[in-house]
Design brief:
Elements: H1 2-5, E1 11-16, E2 21-29, E3 35-44, E4 52-61, E5 66-71, H2 74-77
Antiparallel strand pairs: 1-2, 1-5, 2-3, 3-4
């Protein structure tokens, strides 16, 4: 878990086991990897429309639903035109 400490106060992208994608500032986490994001939004992917960004603000994600956490390169991310990007939503992880 010490690897997550370097992400605190940085922008991260989190993919959950149910296929959702959240982006926000990592404010904290606990021993079960429950995540606290600030200034967060969910990116909703579609094959017919651009990526919708649903503003959430302060958001908590349960640790047992976290699949992947990665630091986001804000300089690259800010240049993306989300209205023109198409993509299939991720399927939930099957246990």
């Amino acid at each position: 878990m010490s690897g997550l400490e370097s992400y605190v106060n940085n922008t991260v992208s989190i993919i959950t086991a149910d296929g959702r994608n959240f982006v926000g500032t990592l404010k904290g986490f606990d021993q079960t990897v429950n995540i606290i994001l600030d200034e967060s939004h969910e990116r909703v992917y579609s094959m017919t429309a651009g990526i919708e960004q649903v503003v959430l603000g302060l958001h908590i994600i349960r640790g047992d639903n976290v699949a992947i956490i990665g630091q986001l390169d804000e300089s690259v991310d800010s240049k993306l035109d989300f209205s023109s990007i198409r993509g299939m939503p991720l399927e939930p992880v099957v246990h």
